[in-house]
Amino acid sequence: MTASNSEGNSSRKSSSDTTGGHAAAADVESTIRTLEDTRYEAVIAGDIEAFAALAHPELAYTHSNAAVDTLDSYLEKLRSGFYVYHSIEHPVDRILVSGDTAVVVGEMHADLTARGVRKTLANRSLAVWVRERDHWLLLAYQPTVLPKGA
Known about the structure:
alpha+beta; 7 strands; disordered N terminus
């Protein structure tokens, strides 16, 4: 289920209040869903350049162990095999859109090898996308470990 940010203070405009109304917001949400699918598919396939093309140069990529990577350090970890993703599921709860920013609220469940150790992750996640020159780029990612049984 997705939702644009149409609640709250009526003096603030959401994407559904701008020219094109709900259709424009739905188009942005569809685009962001596709980009999320594409970025996860890229890391599973080991297509580092495809991931890099989706990322903002100032990317802040936080991991569930609280380590933070820049775009360059994350790409180096992918290239070196520090992270090898075997499978990822990433259900989206909602997408909030405000102007040229989209926030994806959902989960990320992954089977990966990190630093040579096979792991299974179960996280809530938050991804921030920004639109620059008609392109959406991943600016930030933040997972939070789900408690056991959640």
